[in-house]
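Researcher: Good morning. I'm working through a list of sequences from a screen, and I'd like to move beyond sequence-only analysis. For each chain I'm collecting a predicted structure so we can compare shapes side by side. This is the next one on the list. No need for commentary yet; just the structure.
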Amino acid sequence: MNDTTDNLINMTDSVLKQCTLVLAAHGSQTEPRAALHTHLLAAHIQALGIFHQVLPSFWKEAPEWYTLPAHCTSSTILVVPLLMSEGYFAKTILPRCLEIGAQRAATEPTILTAPPVGIHPSLHQVAERILSDALEQALSNHPALTEKDFTLVVAGHGTTRDKQSEKSILDLVEKLRVKFNSPMVEALFLDQPPALADLQKHVITKGVILLPYFVSSGQHTLTDIPSELGLPTQQHPYNQEYTLPERDQIIWYLEPVGTQPQMVQLIVDHALKLIETHQFKTNTRPKRKHITLLCEHLELHIHHTTQGEVELRHIEDQHINASQLETFHSPLALWSSLRRDSIGADFAHVPTTRERPRGWRLVLSQDEDIAHALELIFALPHTTNQPPMALHTLVHTLKGQYRTIFTQDEPHITTHIRQRCDQRCLKNRTWTVHENEQTRASPSPRTELDCTTPCAALLTELTHLAQSTES
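Model: Good morning. Structure tokens for this chain:
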């Protein structure tokens, strides 16, 4: 933290301690690693002790934007969008989702939303430094080349839905042209022209230094951009030099700008600016209680050791010697392992015992840490007393890509919901397809964990089903 931020934190310490900071990111249903950076940022900021609570939330996975503030334990919520522009998601989707959450809250929360981190002036400075260092390294590796032999490329997502989406990147490109006193700086996009796939049309130099202007490492930066550029597929493709003989080109592919350590400072700065002109409520909701009962609902085994620690494991592993299980001391580490290896695209659901991976044990210091682990791994909200929201109502409210869901036959929708939600998820589905349905949503609830809103994973599956039916 810098001195200015430290002084502001000191002046507002009592207020911040009553606030929940929410990092609102996009997430992914196809790339489990996409959300990892957001969870790490949340854990890092939580460890600073500035805020009462720091939570990640996502558009594409649980905990979803539209389930807030059920996951928050304070009545004042500061939302910092981990988005790179003031485009479609920042101006339309996120506000709509937050409005849904506020309307369904037991008590009306104070929700304040900051501008996206992608337009923070300091992030442009970070991008300038990254590209400057990369250019210096590239010139050192290839003494025969000069600065005129390189083009700096800023790669963005882009969209045809909102022209504002490109503004932050185009502003950055103009700054870079001035800084490097060179016109050889380009902005290319995945979903709008000028396209990354047309790199050769826009870049004629031998050397290309490409910086993904994305907030995290996910599907777009790990797979889509390398594919568009013709780079070989790798688990970690960043900060490497690729030689493409067929183009007579060398490409340096850098890490996404949002993965830099300065992001913690930028996020905190964004949140602090929200409090300068607002007054906050100071009451907080009670912590979750009855952890043992909650573990029983999730079919997990919890054990309090003689050393004062709390151990959590798969219920079918309760009699296995600890030495035979992989031991985790961090909820985030366990989340990453279960998600990456076994849950995959289904991570937003609470899997049954049959589907949940075995062979692990989580050892923590107190019950409160176990509660955090359950919330993180199984996306459990702090409160389950929200009124159910019908699928049709949610789809109509969100619109966007989900508008196609009800273009398919409704019996097909109902069948999929029963197979996915009622048979494979431990949560008790209390929502129905339509608002006025009289029948109970889940015919035979197995736990007291209520699911009051269709999750992002289900919405995505239904969207894909509708699209495949249309084609």
